[in-house]
Amino acid sequence: MIKTKIIVTFATLNNTQKNESMNVLLIGSGGRESALAWKIAQSSANLFVAPGNPGTANIAKNVNIKVSDFDTIEKFVIDNNINLVVVGPEIPLIDGLADRLLAIPGGKAPLVVGPKKDGAQLEGSKDFAKQFMIRHNIPTAKYKTFNGDTYAQAVDFLKTLQPPYVLKADGPAAGKGVIIEENFDIACNELKEMFSGKFGKSSAEVVIEEFLSGIELSVFVLTDGHGGYTILPEAKDYKRIGEGDKGLNTGGMGSISPVPFADKVFMDKIETRIIKPTINGLIKDGIDYRGFIFFGLINVNNDPYVIEYNVRMGDPETESVMLRVKGDFVDLLVSAAQGNLNGKKCEIDSQTAATVVLASGGYPEDYKKGFVINGLDVVKDSIVFHAGTKEKDGAIVTDGGRVLTVSSLGNDIPSALQKSLDGISKISFEGAYHRRDIGKDLLKYV
Ligand code: AMP
Ligand code: GLY
Q1: Mean pLDDT over all residues of the chain?
Q2: Among 170, 192, 209, where does a domain finish?
Q3: In a shared domain, residues 25 and 111
Q4: Which pTM was predicted?
């Protein structure tokens, strides 16, 4: 691993003397944060991760603070002269962590990668995101928003749509708030249940939208709030538990980057029709957005549409994306957070990255935790990122549904996938499950 020393020479950086390496705090503990930590640790920043996991403990200093404990995070930032905070998950951003840190007085406020509350509404409210897209002419499915008082109108609107019917809880629901239903009567029932609190407050309002048919991809941008942005490697996520994209939805069972159908022509359409209008729309709306924007897109007959915005990186996309990011990532993060990317671009490795998730048996339904994981040190040609693990009595044990991700670079999808599968074959724990077909659907586009 190449270690490049980041020397802080920005006069504008608070709290930092010239030629001192940066103190970086990364918030989160999943596979996404493991991959971000791995990349950040390649710069010579002093990296802290709150709360982190046993994997991040090998490359950074874990600090035992919950992502929701803003008081303790703020105190840690002040006491440890943190220069840059990178926020991994969306909930703290939606709840205002960036606002809180940026308001620290006395020149002690850090730079923050992650939007304030206003920008985080792009993920925090589906209705806000849809209104934003309509206002700025960004292609997305036709929709209307309803609540319990307008149930009858919602049913009338459903009647105007072709099945399957797409119902989305307005607020955050840990990736579970979207229902896609073929049957009209069942869709009406689901809607009633959503209004009655199926997803708590998050489904008090429900976005009903037209179903779009196509293949999905995830596009990531880092933006500086002043119109500057850089496009990171795109990726495809595999959401279903079973091979051939069958079975229940999960947080994601693997990812591939690059995405072969996202050729130059298609990426140019995405940039012109979606990325630029989004960045300009944020500025027009007075939202100073410094951080990652994750565009959940769908390719409908070679035209890109936005399915959703997220205000963070994707998981398990980040594990593939970070393998392809070259150069000094901390430098990019600092520039974005300072509001001056100034044309700096993310350098991208042309190789293919394949990530395979190793999950607990039973996931995404009930599963047991606490099984000892063997073989972690034996994997040599892949990077093993921890997601749901913990240390217990000197051993690493399973502690979540998605336990580990194994990520590899190769010349093409089959070779990258094979490396990850070889890596996985060396790791064992009771009930371990993974998909062997990550990326195979993309071979027809190569
Ligand atoms: P979301 O949380 O908005 O990303 O939705 C979760 C998943 O539901 C997406 O990744 C898509 O697979 C699917 N989905 C959401 N909206 C639509 C739509 N309008 N048409 C087709 N599929 C959709
Ligand atoms: N992998 C999809 C997500 O992070 O939301």
Answers
A1: 95
A2: 209
A3: yes
A4: 0.95
